[in-house]
TrEMBL record:
Entry's cofactor comment: Binds 1 FMN per subunit.
Entry's family note: Belongs to the azoreductase type 1 family.
Cofactor or coenzyme needed: FMN
Binding annotation for FMN: S10, S16, I17, S18, M96, Y97, N98, F99
Protein name (Swiss-Prot/TrEMBL): FMN dependent NADH:quinone oxidoreductase
Keyword Kinase: no
Gene that produces this protein: azoR
Domain Flavodoxin-like fold span(s) in chain numbering: 2-197
Function summary: Quinone reductase that provides resistance to thiol-specific stress caused by electrophilic quinones. Also exhibits azoreductase activity. Catalyzes the reductive cleavage of the azo bond in aromatic azo compounds to the corresponding amines.
Entry keywords, A to Z: Flavoprotein, FMN, NAD, Oxidoreductase
Length: 199
Protein backbone atom coordinates (compact mmCIF):
# COMPACT_ATOMS: atom_id res chain seq x y z
CA UNK A 1 0.00 0.00 0.00
CA UNK A 2 1.26 3.45 -0.94
CA UNK A 3 0.35 6.77 0.62
CA UNK A 4 -0.69 9.62 -1.66
CA UNK A 5 -0.66 13.22 -0.44
CA UNK A 6 -2.72 15.70 -2.47
CA UNK A 7 -2.18 19.42 -1.92
CA UNK A 8 -4.97 21.69 -3.19
CA UNK A 9 -4.10 25.37 -3.57
CA UNK A 10 -6.86 26.95 -5.66
CA UNK A 11 -8.58 29.88 -3.96
CA UNK A 12 -11.84 28.73 -5.55
CA UNK A 13 -13.96 25.84 -4.35
CA UNK A 14 -16.45 25.99 -7.23
CA UNK A 15 -15.45 26.19 -10.88
CA UNK A 16 -11.79 25.40 -10.22
CA UNK A 17 -10.12 23.50 -13.05
CA UNK A 18 -7.22 22.40 -10.86
CA UNK A 19 -9.72 20.90 -8.42
CA UNK A 20 -11.43 19.10 -11.30
CA UNK A 21 -8.07 17.65 -12.27
CA UNK A 22 -7.26 16.47 -8.74
CA UNK A 23 -10.74 14.96 -8.36
CA UNK A 24 -10.21 13.05 -11.59
CA UNK A 25 -6.71 12.02 -10.53
CA UNK A 26 -8.00 10.64 -7.22
CA UNK A 27 -10.84 8.69 -8.83
CA UNK A 28 -8.55 7.14 -11.42
CA UNK A 29 -5.75 6.46 -8.95
CA UNK A 30 -8.05 4.77 -6.45
CA UNK A 31 -9.56 2.64 -9.20
CA UNK A 32 -6.08 1.47 -10.21
CA UNK A 33 -4.70 1.28 -6.65
CA UNK A 34 -7.68 0.49 -4.38
CA UNK A 35 -5.56 -0.22 -1.30
CA UNK A 36 -3.64 3.07 -1.42
CA UNK A 37 -4.35 5.72 1.19
CA UNK A 38 -5.12 9.18 -0.19
CA UNK A 39 -4.85 12.26 2.04
CA UNK A 40 -6.03 15.66 0.79
CA UNK A 41 -4.82 18.90 2.34
CA UNK A 42 -6.75 21.94 1.11
CA UNK A 43 -4.70 25.09 1.61
CA UNK A 44 -7.71 27.29 0.85
CA UNK A 45 -9.65 25.75 3.74
CA UNK A 46 -6.80 25.20 6.19
CA UNK A 47 -4.59 28.15 5.35
CA UNK A 48 -0.89 27.93 6.13
CA UNK A 49 0.56 31.27 7.32
CA UNK A 50 3.50 32.81 5.54
CA UNK A 51 6.94 32.12 6.95
CA UNK A 52 7.44 34.51 9.87
CA UNK A 53 9.59 35.15 12.91
CA UNK A 54 7.62 32.64 14.99
CA UNK A 55 8.31 29.80 12.56
CA UNK A 56 11.98 30.72 12.31
CA UNK A 57 12.11 30.82 16.11
CA UNK A 58 10.43 27.44 16.35
CA UNK A 59 13.06 25.94 14.10
CA UNK A 60 16.08 27.62 15.67
CA UNK A 61 15.30 28.17 19.36
CA UNK A 62 15.87 25.40 21.95
CA UNK A 63 12.56 23.89 23.05
CA UNK A 64 12.83 25.14 26.62
CA UNK A 65 13.31 28.72 25.38
CA UNK A 66 10.51 28.82 22.81
CA UNK A 67 7.55 31.14 23.18
CA UNK A 68 4.03 29.76 22.88
CA UNK A 69 3.79 31.28 19.39
CA UNK A 70 7.03 29.60 18.35
CA UNK A 71 5.87 26.25 19.71
CA UNK A 72 2.59 26.55 17.79
CA UNK A 73 4.40 27.46 14.56
CA UNK A 74 6.80 24.53 14.96
CA UNK A 75 3.94 22.13 15.64
CA UNK A 76 2.21 23.28 12.45
CA UNK A 77 5.40 22.82 10.44
CA UNK A 78 5.92 19.37 11.97
CA UNK A 79 2.40 18.30 11.00
CA UNK A 80 2.88 19.38 7.39
CA UNK A 81 6.36 17.90 7.16
CA UNK A 82 5.28 14.59 8.71
CA UNK A 83 2.52 14.28 6.09
CA UNK A 84 5.07 14.79 3.34
CA UNK A 85 7.60 12.41 4.88
CA UNK A 86 4.95 9.69 5.12
CA UNK A 87 3.82 10.05 1.50
CA UNK A 88 5.09 7.89 -1.34
CA UNK A 89 3.35 10.01 -3.98
CA UNK A 90 2.87 13.77 -3.87
CA UNK A 91 0.25 15.56 -5.98
CA UNK A 92 0.36 19.34 -6.18
CA UNK A 93 -2.61 21.17 -7.70
CA UNK A 94 -1.29 24.54 -8.84
CA UNK A 95 -3.44 27.04 -10.71
CA UNK A 96 -1.34 29.78 -12.28
CA UNK A 97 -1.76 33.12 -10.52
CA UNK A 98 0.16 35.98 -12.10
CA UNK A 99 2.58 33.62 -13.88
CA UNK A 100 3.49 31.67 -10.72
CA UNK A 101 2.09 29.39 -8.02
CA UNK A 102 -0.50 30.53 -5.44
CA UNK A 103 1.00 32.10 -2.33
CA UNK A 104 -0.72 29.40 -0.28
CA UNK A 105 1.36 26.75 -2.01
CA UNK A 106 4.52 28.80 -1.50
CA UNK A 107 3.70 28.99 2.22
CA UNK A 108 3.30 25.21 2.36
CA UNK A 109 6.68 24.77 0.70
CA UNK A 110 8.24 27.21 3.18
CA UNK A 111 6.98 24.98 6.01
CA UNK A 112 8.31 21.70 4.58
CA UNK A 113 11.65 22.66 3.03
CA UNK A 114 13.56 22.22 6.27
CA UNK A 115 17.27 21.85 6.85
CA UNK A 116 18.03 18.63 8.67
CA UNK A 117 14.58 17.21 7.96
CA UNK A 118 13.84 17.24 4.21
CA UNK A 119 17.32 18.29 3.08
CA UNK A 120 20.75 18.65 4.62
CA UNK A 121 23.88 20.65 3.94
CA UNK A 122 27.02 18.68 3.10
CA UNK A 123 30.58 19.48 2.11
CA UNK A 124 29.52 19.19 -1.52
CA UNK A 125 26.34 21.24 -1.19
CA UNK A 126 22.70 20.63 -0.24
CA UNK A 127 21.36 17.09 -0.41
CA UNK A 128 17.68 16.16 -0.58
CA UNK A 129 16.48 13.59 1.93
CA UNK A 130 13.16 12.58 0.34
CA UNK A 131 14.50 10.14 -2.21
CA UNK A 132 12.25 7.44 -3.64
CA UNK A 133 9.15 9.62 -3.87
CA UNK A 134 7.20 10.59 -6.99
CA UNK A 135 5.37 13.84 -7.63
CA UNK A 136 2.68 14.95 -10.04
CA UNK A 137 1.91 18.62 -10.58
CA UNK A 138 -1.48 19.50 -12.05
CA UNK A 139 -1.63 23.06 -13.32
CA UNK A 140 -4.48 25.17 -14.67
CA UNK A 141 -3.54 28.16 -16.82
CA UNK A 142 -5.57 30.83 -18.56
CA UNK A 143 -3.00 31.19 -21.35
CA UNK A 144 -0.43 28.94 -22.97
CA UNK A 145 2.89 29.14 -21.13
CA UNK A 146 4.57 25.71 -21.16
CA UNK A 147 8.17 26.05 -22.26
CA UNK A 148 8.07 29.83 -22.39
CA UNK A 149 9.94 32.42 -20.33
CA UNK A 150 6.63 33.38 -18.69
CA UNK A 151 6.26 30.00 -17.02
CA UNK A 152 7.56 30.49 -13.50
CA UNK A 153 5.66 27.49 -12.12
CA UNK A 154 7.37 24.47 -13.59
CA UNK A 155 11.01 25.61 -13.22
CA UNK A 156 10.44 26.74 -9.62
CA UNK A 157 8.59 23.61 -8.53
CA UNK A 158 11.11 21.32 -10.21
CA UNK A 159 13.89 23.09 -8.35
CA UNK A 160 12.07 23.12 -4.99
CA UNK A 161 11.10 19.45 -5.20
CA UNK A 162 14.51 18.42 -6.49
CA UNK A 163 16.13 20.31 -3.64
CA UNK A 164 14.47 17.94 -1.15
CA UNK A 165 15.22 14.87 -3.23
CA UNK A 166 12.07 14.46 -5.34
CA UNK A 167 13.36 14.24 -8.89
CA UNK A 168 10.69 12.08 -10.48
CA UNK A 169 8.21 14.86 -11.23
CA UNK A 170 5.58 14.87 -13.97
CA UNK A 171 3.73 18.03 -14.93
CA UNK A 172 0.26 17.95 -16.45
CA UNK A 173 -0.75 21.35 -17.77
CA UNK A 174 -4.30 22.37 -18.63
CA UNK A 175 -3.61 25.48 -20.70
CA UNK A 176 -5.52 28.07 -22.72
CA UNK A 177 -8.47 27.90 -20.33
CA UNK A 178 -9.32 31.59 -20.65
CA UNK A 179 -8.89 31.72 -24.42
CA UNK A 180 -12.33 30.21 -24.94
CA UNK A 181 -13.80 27.82 -27.47
CA UNK A 182 -11.51 25.18 -28.87
CA UNK A 183 -8.59 26.30 -26.68
CA UNK A 184 -10.50 25.53 -23.50
CA UNK A 185 -11.72 22.18 -24.79
CA UNK A 186 -8.29 21.21 -26.13
CA UNK A 187 -6.51 22.20 -22.93
CA UNK A 188 -8.85 20.17 -20.74
CA UNK A 189 -8.89 17.15 -23.03
CA UNK A 190 -5.11 17.02 -23.22
CA UNK A 191 -4.77 17.23 -19.46
CA UNK A 192 -7.38 14.53 -18.88
CA UNK A 193 -5.70 12.24 -21.41
CA UNK A 194 -2.40 12.58 -19.55
CA UNK A 195 -4.14 11.91 -16.24
CA UNK A 196 -5.50 8.65 -17.61
CA UNK A 197 -1.96 7.58 -18.51
CA UNK A 198 -0.72 8.37 -14.99
CA UNK A 199 -3.25 6.13 -13.25
Amino acid sequence: MSKVLVIESSARQQGSISRQLTDEFIVQWQAAHPTDQVTVRDLAVEQVPHLDINLLGGWMTPAEQQTDAEKAALARSNTLTDELLAADVLVLAAPMYNFAIPSTLKSWLDHVLRAGVTFKYTDTGPQGLLTGKRAYVLTARGGIYAGSSMDHQEPYLRQALGFIGIHEVRFIHAEGLNLGGEFLEKGLNQAKAQLAQVA
